Amino acid sequence: DGSSLPLGEPGEQPVELRLPPDPEFLRLARYAAADAAARAGLGIDATDDLRLAVSESCGLLTGSGVPIALRFEAVAGRVVVHGDGAPGPGFDGENGELARSLVEAVVDELDFEVDGDRATFRIVKS
């Protein structure tokens, strides 16, 4: 239901998406990221960065058996993405660290938290 995800500012029209925790559905997250970037008026490079960041972040939650909930908030010049799920088998270790480092390099802000069997992230791209 997405109720655990933070609400946007008044007047925004956030988009919520729930995906199976399977890598084959990551393209839907990338499409939603591109849509949010377009609605925010981000350029091509920023859009590509956001798509990559969302895909890599969601990829860390695949294979967990827990659906991935996403919330995209787009305002002029800025997109905030909230993600909620569970750490997948690739979350820890070298590949997980590489993915998080890659995401940090292409976004303005990244918050990734794990609390037991729950993982959440927040990405900001301007």
Q: What does this 3D model show about the protein?
A:
- By secondary structure, this protein is α+β, with helices and mostly antiparallel strands.
- About 35% of the residues lie in helices and about 30% in strands.
- The chain contains three helices and five strands; from the N terminus they run βααββαββ.
- It has helices spanning about 25-40, 45-60, 95-105, and strands spanning about 15-20, 70-75, 80-85, 110-115, 120-125.
- The chain has a five-stranded antiparallel β-sheet with strand order 1-2-3-5-4, covered by helices on one side.
- Helix 1 runs antiparallel to helix 2 and helix 2 packs antiparallel against helix 3 (about 95-105).
- The termini are far apart.
- The relative contact order is 0.21.
- Residues about 5-10 have low confidence and may be disordered.
